[in-house]
Amino acid sequence: MTRITGVRVIRTRADGSWLIVKVLTDQAGLYGIGSASDYYQREAVAAVIEHNLAPLLVGREASAIEDIWQTVYASGYWRNGSVTNTALAGIDMALWDIKGKEAGMPVYQLLGGACRSAVMAYAHAGGRDDKELEEDVRRYMAEGYQVIRCQYAVYGGGGFLPSETVSTPRGANRPTQVFDDEAYLENVPAMFERMRVGLGFGIKLTHDVHEHLRPQTAVQLAKRLEPYRLFFLEDALAPEQIAWYRLMRQQCTTPQAMGELFVNPQEWLPLVSERLIDYLRVRVSKAGGITPCRKLAAVCEAFGVHTAWQEGGDNDPVNQVAAMHLDLASWSFGIQEENHFRPQELEAFPGHAELSGGYLYLSGAPGLGIDIDEDRAAALVDPEASGRLHFAAEDRRADGSIVRP
C-alpha cells in the first residue's frame, strides 16, 4: 500500500508562472507530478496546495484517486473556484502519474487504451494585415497542420480603433486604442473572405473571439462567418452570457467551441446536453484534473460534442500531456490547441510531448510519461520577471468601460 508522504510546489519558467506539483510517497523513488499553473493567481494556488491541501493528504493511500478528489473538492466547503480547482488538478494529475508508474503503463492505458494513433493539434496564425496572416497560415500548412486559427495580431484584432479617431467622454480613461464591436463585425468576416480567396477551402480555419463581443454582436458574427465554413468559432460569448448560444444555434450552423473560462460543471453541462456547442474547451487543470475531465469527455460523447482541451501560451508541458492522455483514450476528442515552448523549457521536462506534422505524440513512458529536472527548472526562473504580477489585458470601449476577456 503506497501512502502520500508530502506535497511540494515547484515554480518554474522565466516569469515563475508554471507551478508543478510533486506528490511524494513512502516507496523509494516513486512520486508523481501534476500541473497547477495559473498565470494570474500563482501565489494563491501555491498557498492552497502547501498550507491547506498538503496537510490533508499526507498519510492517505495514493491509489484512492476518486476518494481523494471528492474529499479535496468539498474540503473548503465552497467549491468550483478557479484557484481550488487548479490546486486540486495538480494533485489529481500527480496521483494518476503515480498509479501509471505502479502499473507500468501510460495513463491512457488505465483509461481504457488508445483509440487513435496521435493527437491532432491546431496552430495559431497571426498577422498585422491580410498579407502577413496568409503568409503565417501557409507556413503552418507547410509544417503539416490541417487546422489553423486566424487572428489579426492580438485578441480583439480587427476591432481596435486609434483613440484619437473616436469620440470619448471628458476625463475618460483614454488608452491608445479602443475596442469597437461594429468594427470587429465588419473586419473579421472580410478577413475570412480574403483568406478563402487566397487559400481555398482545403485548409480548416478557426477564429478566437476571446469573449470580446456583446452577445448580440457575437450572434451576428457567427451568422456572417457561415459562408467561410470555419472548423469552429472559439469563445464567441463570455461565460456569463452562455444562454445566447441557444439563439446562435437557431440562427446559423457555424460550429461553436466554448469553455476556456469554465470552472463549474453547471457552465458547460447545459451547453453539451442541449447540443448548443460543438467543441468543449475547458482547460484540464481548471476543471480539477484528469478525474473530472474523463467524465466530462464521456458526457460529451453521449451528446455528440467533441473535446478541445484548452492549452495556449501560458500553459505548461505537464498539463499538455495530461490532456493528451485524455485525448488518446476518448472517442469524443476533436482537437487540441498547440503550445510553444522554448528549447530550455523542454529540457527541464524530460519525456515531454513531441510535436511533428501537426500531431502531438507522448513519450510512451509509464504514468504521464513526463518528469521534471528540478535543477533545470530552477535555472529557468528570472528573479526580476518572476516578481511581477500579471493581469488580463485591460481592453476598453470608447466610453471607458472594460471589455471582459
In short:
It contains 15 helices and 15 strands.
Cα distance spanning the termini? 46 Å
Rg: 21 Å
> CATH topology of the domain at 110-368, which one?
TIM Barrel
Counting DSSP H or I runs of 4 or more residues, the number of helices is 15
**Principal-axes shape call:** globular
* CATH secondary-structure class of the domain at 110-368: Alpha Beta
Helix coverage percent: 25-40%
By CATH's scheme, which homologous superfamily of the domain at 110-368 applies?
Enolase-like C-terminal domain
Report the structural category.
alpha/beta
H-E string: EEEHHHHEHEEEHEHEHEHEHHEHEHEEHH
Question: Kindly state the mean pLDDT as a whole number?
Answer: 96
SSE arrangement:
Blueprint: E1 4-12, E2 18-25, E3 31-35, H1 42-57, H2 65-75, H3 82-103, H4 107-110, E4 119-127, H5 130-143, E5 147-152, E6 160-162, E7 177-179, H6 181-199, E8 204-208, H7 215-224, E9 232-234, H8 244-251, E10 256-258, H9 265-273, E11 279-280, H10 284-287, H11 290-302, E12 306-307, H12 317-329, E13 336-337, H13 343-347, E14 354-356, E15 359-361, H14 374-380, H15 383-386
Helix pairs in contact: 1-3, 2-3, 5-6, 6-7, 7-8
